[in-house]
Each structure stands twice: as C-alpha cells, then as structure tokens.
Design a protein that fits this description.
By secondary structure, this protein is α+β, with helices and mostly antiparallel strands. Helices cover about 50% and strands about 10% of the residues. The longest helix has about 45 residues.
C-alpha cells in the first residue's frame, strides 16, 4: 500500500497539471478571440450609460428648454416643424420632462428623415438633426456593431459566447489551490509579471459576474440566437402573448417598422382601423387619449400614414415595468390593443428587465455607476492580459500555453464546450473552427511559433 501511494499521488498531480494546461490554453484562445471586442463594447457601453447627459451637453440648444406657463397643442407643433422643414410628419415624441422639447420626426424629400425639436411652451422650432443622428445614437450603433452592417451583428453572439468561456476558464485558473498570495491581493510592482498576473486575476474575479451578465443580456441583439429566440418567444410570428390579441383586423406590418420598440414586441403586428368614418380624430385627440389612459411621459406617437393605419403610442422608460404600447383606431379613438409589461410572459419579462439593467436604466444613477466601474474593469482586464502575455512570451514565439502531456483531458473540456455550442450555435461553429486550427497548428507550425 505504501509503495503504490506515491505513484497514485504523482498520477493525480499529473492529471491536475494536464487539466490546468488544457484550461489555460483555451483561456488564452478565448482572450485572443474576445478581448478586442470586449474593449470596444466596454468603452462604447460606458459612454452610452450616460446617453441623456451627454446628448444634453452636446446639444443644449435643442435638447433643453426653459420651463414656462402654458403648452402648445401637438398639432400646432407639428405644423411649425413642417413649416420649417417641409415633408410628412410620421412621429410625435411627447416631452419626457418639463425641461424637454417635443420631437417631431419628419420625412423630407431632400434630407430623408429629420428629428425636429420644438419648444412645447412657445411652439418655436429649435432646430433639427438627422433622425437617430445624435452622437449617442452613433455610439449605440457602434456598440451593437450595426454601424458596420447587419452581418457584423453575428460578432455579438461570438463575443458573448466566448466571453462566458473566458470567465469560466478564468475562474478555474484563479482558484486558490492552497495559494496564500495573489488570490485577492496584488503582489509585486508594475515592472514584473507577477504584478500583472495578480492584477489580471483579481480584476477578473471582481468583474467576472458582470461580464457574464452583460454577455447574456446582450444576446438579444445577436444576429442568429437573438432573432431565433425572438421569433420563438413571440409565438407564430404574431408578437402578442395569449390573452392580449383581440378580435380586430390585423395588418402585415410589424410594430418595429413604425416605431422603435422593445425586444419582446419586435414581431408584434399592427391592428387596422375600421375606416368607418371619414374624419380621423387627429393628433391632438390621440395625445389626449394617451394621457387619459396614463401612458408614461416621454411616449412616442406613430402617426398613421394609411387610411387603415392606427395611432400607436409606445413608451419604454427607465423602469421596465412601465413599458406600454397602445394602438388607437384613428377614426373612433378607441383602444384596439393595450399592452404593458405585465402582459409579457416570464421569459419576456426577464429579458426586458435584463436589457434595462444592461443599459444602465433600471436603478438610476447606482445602475450607471456600477456598470461604469464594470466597464473600466473590463478594459483593465484586457490591458493586464496584454501586458502579462507580452512579459511571458518567449522571444520569437506567440506564447501559446503548452499542450497537456495527456491530450485526453481535452475530452471533458470539449464536452462542456459542446453544450455551450448547442445553446449558441454560432459560438459552437467557432469552437469547432478553433479546435481544427489548434490541431493543425500543433502539427504544421514550428515549435518556436507555438
């Protein structure tokens, strides 16, 4: 018994060492894949957390008004906007606060869609910008990668899936295993590798939860998983949960086509007006109805462009529980569909709450500051990883962590990766591609490049 115990201990030690090497190797690959995207997403995300504050600072002459007595009717503000910028009014945005202007979206022949800002107290036109043309809309499209086209949205799913892998393998590598230092403290000085290794490990420990949370709640914007799950959760491509659909004529247009909506309602189809009367109720009456029904301030009203169209009032405030969409018959003014957060299914509620927290809205300034700290931590994580790799990398080598002596340890790791690949198919494909490249690289490249 005493003669075999050391052998068993050595075997266990070798097995643990092999597993550590395998995990370290895939942690390196995950970092290689995702860290550039994580830095970009962290920087743009940190800026977008303060979208209202930044837009108010950049555009003070059109984004802020002095509080006065009295208000101008919505139709009068639309007329003023059209007098300055001729075209067709397609949307009216109710002032969210007493200091906010009204915003009229005008489709023009020469400049496309414009967002025209109007003083709700005097009716004076303050100015205009291209629709969704503020600096923060640009930051948002950069953050979602839509700035680079729809195909680039596929990278969101890849970045999210590999980020989760990065955190999982990082926790394994961080696990103390009897270590007394470098677990929650940073040793050494910036000139040596130990300092950067400990800084990387401790930072990863602090922001790991946020990376996983942001990755999961960012998945709704991904090009494959997000779209498929959206269709599945909406059911039959209709968009309203059971009990909300009513016996009214429905059009083929979706809510997202006429007004930017929540993720859960992108597939929601628009009802149709009855066309039983000759005269529509008009924007003033529609706004009065939305106010009477208690729609949260800052709602948008999509103005019907067709005889069968409806007035759609929609609002998505910081508090996700107050999301609401109401469609009015443009002739009778009767609500055709009135849907709020309470009508969403469990999955939709969780998703909308997660998105609201992801955007720094749900818990006010605390939400913003916590996520700002997380974004800064992600940037520090990436910087420390780069410095640590550079200091560890042998001259003339890529510095890829060595293969384990027994490659069988990859089997369990690959099984775990396969589960993630099934949940996120695009990530699974990229994992297979990385496995193939790793296998080929170990057999083709000279050892000094490994």
């Amino acid at each position: 018994m005493s003669e075999t115990t050391p052998g068993r201990e050595n075997a266990v030690a070798r097995s643990a060492s092999n597993l550590y090497r395998a995990v370290w190797r895939w942690h390196f690959y995950a970092g290689l894949m995702v860290l550039p995207f994580m830095v970009t997403l962290a920087v743009t995300g940190a800026l977008y957390l303060f979208k209202d504050e930044i837009d108010g600072f950049v555009y003070p002459e059109i984004k802020r008004v002095a509080i006065e007595q009295g208000n101008v009717a919505p139709e009068a503000m639309v007329d003023a906007a059209l007098a300055t910028y001729p075209g067709t009014a397609v949307k009216y945005l109710d002032p969210a606060t007493p200091e906010s202007p009204a915003e009229i979206t005008v489709a023009t022949a020469d400049f496309g869609k414009l967002a025209v800002y109007v003083n709700p107290y005097s009716g004076a036109v303050l100015g205009a910008l291209p629709d969704r043309g503020t600096i923060m809309w640009t930051i948002r499209t950069l953050h979602s990668l839509k700035y680079f086209g729809d195909t680039a949205r596929l990278l969101i799913e890849l970045a999210g899936g590999w980020s989760i892998l990065l955190v999982g393998t990082g926790i394994y590598l961080w696990w103390p295993r009897g270590k007394k230092g470098g677990v929650v403290t940073v040793r050494g000085k910036p000139g040596n590798r130990m300092f950067w290794r400990d800084l990387h490990a401790v930072t990863g420990l602090l922001v790991g939860f946020f990376i996983v949370f942001l990755a999961v709640t960012g998945m709704p914007w991904s090009g494959v998983w997000g779209e498929k799950v959206n269709e599945w959760t909406n059911g039959s491509n209709f968009g309203y949960p059971s009990g909300v659909r009513v016996d009214v004529p429905m059009s083929g247009d979706h809510l997202d086509h006429v007004s930017k909506t929540s993720w859960s309602l992108e597939q929601a189809r628009l009802p149709e007006s009855s066309v039983a009367a000759d005269t529509p109720i008009g924007l003033n009456k529609a706004v009065e109805t939305f106010d009477r029904l208690g729609l949260h301030r800052g709602y948008a009203v999509a103005i019907p462009a067709k005889p069968e169209g409806v007035y759609t009032g929609s609002v998505y405030p910081d508090d996700a529980a107050r999301q609401r969409v109401i469609h009015l018959d443009q002739y009778s003014g009767e609500p055709l569909i009135d849907m709020g957060f309470a009508d969403y299914g469990p999955g939709g509620k969780w998703m909308e709450w997660g998105i609201s927290v992801h955007m720094g809205q749900e818990f006010g300034l605390v939400n913003q500051m916590v996520l700002l700290a997380a974004c800064l931590g992600i940037v520090l994580l990436a910087v420390s990883a780069g410095v640590m790799w550079w200091k560890r990398r042998p001259a003339g080598s890529l510095g890829v962590p060595p293969l384990p002596e027994d490659t069988k340890v990859f089997r369990g790791l690959i099984a775990i990766l396969a589960i993630g690949g099934i949940v996120f198919p695009l990530v699974g494909i990229s994992l297979l591609a990385m496995l193939a490249l790793d296998w080929a690289g170990t057999r083709v490249l000279p050892p000094r490049f490994a």
